[in-house]
Amino acid sequence: MRKTIQIKLSPEEYSNKDTLVKKICLESGIDKSFLSYKIVKESLDCRKKPLYNLSIVCSNNNDLPNNKPLPFLDVRNSSEVLIIGAGPCGLAAALRLIQKGLKPIIIERGKPVEERKKDIATICRNGEINEESNFCFGEGGAGAFSDGKLYTRSNKKGNVDEVLSLLVYFGADEQILRQSHAHIGTDKLAHILKNIRETIIKCGGEYLFETKVEDFMLEGNKVVGVITSEGEEIPAHKTILATGHSARDIYQLFYDNNWEIEAKPFAVGVRVEHPQMLINQIQYHSSNPSPLLPPATYSLAFNTEERGVFSFCMCPGGIVVPAMDRQGIMSVNGMSNSLRSGEKGNAAIVVSVNEKDASKYSDFGALSLMKLQEEWETSLYINKQIAPAQRITDFIHGKTSSTLCSSSYMPGLTSFNLKEGLPKFIAENLAMGFMDFNLKMKGFITEEALLIGLESRTSSPVRIPRGANLQHTQLRNLYPCGEGAGYAGGITSSALDGINAAEKIATELGV
Fold first, then answer.
1. Where is 485: in which H helix or E strand?
2. Which among 98, 292, 454, 482 counts the fewest CB atoms within 10 Å?
3. Is the pLDDT of residue 158 over 70?
4. What mean pLDDT is predicted for residues 319-327?
5. What is the spatial distance between Cα 110 and Cα 124, in angstroms, rounded to a whole number?
6. Hey, which residues does 319 pair with through a beta bridge?
7. Helix, strand, or coil here: 172?
8. Using CA atoms, how far apart are residues 228 and 41, in angstroms rounded to an integer?
9. What is the DSSP-derived secondary structure letter of residue 444?
10. Could you report the per-residue pLDDT of 458-477, keeping only the tens digit for each?
C-alpha cells in the first residue's frame, strides 16, 4: 500500500530522524517495522517561525517512486544530429537524442570544464580574459558557474522532475528532487558535467571543443551543416542551436544575412551584496537563527506603471563574479557552492528594459536592445575586471561612497556613483525598488549592503523565432533553443527546451 501524507515540522524535528519517523507513522498509520518512505516535496515556510512543509510518499511494502532516467543507447552507427553549444540546453538535448537512438555531435566554442576552471581562475586573479573560455562560454555554459539553481516556473515546457532525475543520475544530491528551490552548487557541477560527457562519449556521441561556428551551410533555405572559424565544413541533416544568451556573434550572423530575429525585452541593474547573517536574521525573524536552518534567500518584486524591479538569481552564502566575455566591458554575476557557506549573500536587482528604451539604435532593428546592452556594459568599464561599487545608503542619497565595505568580488572594487553612472530610468527605478524592499525586508537598506555593477546578462536581448515544429521560421532543419534563442531562463527550463527539440527531431526522423 502506498499513500502520500503532508506534515509540518520545525527545523529541530526535521533534523531528528527518530522524530521524523514517529511523525510519519502517526500520520500514515503504518507501523515503523513495515515503513518505507520518500520525501517528494520540501519547502520552508518562514512567514512566522520557520516550518518545513513536507509531502511524503509512504509504503508498507517498499513500493516507492522510481526516478531512474530512460536507458542510454549505443548510437555509434546512428543518424547524426549537430548541437551547437554544450550548456544545459545542448547537453540535455544530446542525452535525449541518445535515449532515442540518435548520435549527437556537440560543437562548443569553449573548453572542457576542467580547463575552463583554470581560465576562470586567471580572470579572477589578474583580469585576463580568454574570450572563448570564461564565465559565459565553455562546457556547461553560464549556468556551470552560477550556483546551479534549479527553480523554474516552466512546467508547461515539460517534466521538471525528469531534468532533476537526470542530474541526480549524473551525481547531484537526491535532495534536489524534493526541494522547492533546489540548487547543486558550482563546486559540484564540474563533476556532473564530466559524468555527462563520459556517458555521451561512451554511447558514441562526440564533442568538438574549442570549435566556433561562424556560418551555416545552406541549400536554399535548408541548413545542411555549419562552417567553423577555421573554415571547416561540418555537414548535418538536423542542427540544434543552443549557444546561450551571450553569443552575440550568432545574433550578428542572423542580422547580417537578413535571417529572421526579434528584439526581446530583458533587464539590467546591479548585484546587491549583504552579510549573509543579516539576511538570515531578517528572513528567519531572529537575531540568532537556528544553525539547523539553511542560509536564507529572498525573492522581491516592485512594479510601477511602466517598469518592473525585481530580484534575480539570489546566491546565499555566495560570491560575486566577473561575467565579461571580452575586455573593455563590465558585467557581473553571482554564484555559490553547494554548502552556501560564504559570509556574503548576493542577488541581482534589475529593472525591466524594453524596445522603446533602445530607440537611439532603431536603425539596428532586432539588434537594438543588444546594442543598448553593449553600450551600458562599455560605459561602466573601468580597468580590467575592477567593478564599480557603492554602498546602498549612498546610492539612495546620490553620493559617492567614501569607503566600501568588504566584498566577495575577487578582482577588486572601486568607489563609483552608480546613481549617476547608470541610465537615469534604471537608477530611479532601483531607488524606488530598494525603498519598497526595505519595507518588506526591514534592514535591506543598510550601510553594510553594497551595490556592484553592472548586472546585464539576465537574459537574451534577442529572440530567434521558431514555429510549432520548433524549427526556425525561415531556416529549415535549424532548431533554436534555450536562453540564447529567447525561449528559456535558467538551467532547468533550458534543459527542458533542449529535450523538446530532441523529441521533435526524433519524431521527424521516425525513431
1. helix 482-485
2. 292
3. yes
4. 94
5. 18
6. 335
7. coil
8. 45
9. S
10. 999 999 999 999 999 999 99
Q: What is the dihedral of CA 393, 378, 482, 119, to 10 degrees?
A: -90
Q: How many CB atoms within 10 Å of residue 424?
A: 9
Res. 483 pLDDT band, cuts 50 70 90: very high
Q: Does 154 score more than 60 pLDDT?
A: no
What is the average pLDDT score of the chain? 95
* Cα 99 to Cα 503: distance, rounded to the nearest angstrom: 10
Question: Quick one: pLDDT band at residue 340, thresholds 50, 70, 90?
Answer: very high
Q: What is the largest CA-CA distance in the chain?
A: 73
Q: Which residues contact 253 (CB under 8 A, 6 or more apart)?
A: 214, 215, 216, 259
C-beta of residue 213 within 8 angstroms of C-beta of residue 227: yes
Distance of CA 482 to the CA centre of its chain: 11
Edge-to-edge strands, sheet with 222-228 = 213-219, 222-228, 233-235
pTM: 0.95
* Residues in CB range of 286: below 8 A, 6 or more apart: none
Q: Is the dihedral of CA 161, 165, 167, 172 positive or negative?
A: positive
* CB-based contact 24:35 (threshold 8 Å): yes
Cell of 185: 552548487
Distance from C-alpha of 492 to C-alpha of 462, rounded to nearest angstrom: 20
Residue 136 CB-half CA count within 13 A = 24
H/E element holding 2? strand 2-9
CB 505 within 8 A of CB 164: no
**Region class of 76: left (phi > 0), else alpha (psi between -120 and 50), else beta:** alpha
- Strand-pairing partners, residue 3, are 58
Give pLDDT, residue 368.
Answer: 98
Residue 376 corresponds to which amino acid? Answer: W
Query: Which amino acid is residue 4, in one-letter code?
Result: T
17-39: b (≥16 Cβ within 10 Å) or e: eeebeebbbeebebeeeeeebbb
Q: How many CB atoms lie within 10 A of CB 80?
A: 18
pLDDT for 263-279, tens place per residue?
999 999 999 999 999 99
Please give the pLDDT value at position 153. 59
**Is pLDDT of 155 > 70?**
no
Q: Cell for 460? A: 537574451
Per residue in 166-210, pLDDT (tens digit) is 999 999 999 999 998 889 998 999 999 999 999 999 999 999 999
SS (H, E, C) 14-56: HHCHHHHHHHHHHHHCCCHHHCEEEEEEEEEECCCCCEEEEEE
> Which residue bears the cell 509504503?
59
Q: Which of 216, 177, 189 is nearest to 91 (CA)?
A: 189
Task: Give pLDDT tens digits for 350-396.
Answer: 999 999 999 999 999 999 999 999 999 999 999 989 999 999 999 99
